[in-house]
Sequence to fold (78 residues):
Amino acid sequence: MTYDEYKMIISHSLEDYCNKGGSLLKIALNIYDKEYIFEFEDDYSEDLKKSLTDKAYKAMEKGKDLPKGIRLSKVILQ
Fold:
């Protein structure tokens, strides 16, 4: 999954959060709770899923594409 693809998912989640009365101040200060929901391309072992998820978080922090085998499907903001 490319950076632009998952950026769109995150942007839509932020928009939905605001439309439902979420705090713009919390977004600006980055103090809101978020949960990333990932999908895997194959039936991987739990260890491999954990490894892919960790790599995905690191890639997202750096604004890079996600590793092969994992996709961001949803972001839940609270």
Notes: The chain has one domain: 3-77. The chain has a mean pLDDT of 95. The chain is about 50% helix and 20% strand. The first strand starts at residue 34 and ends at 40.
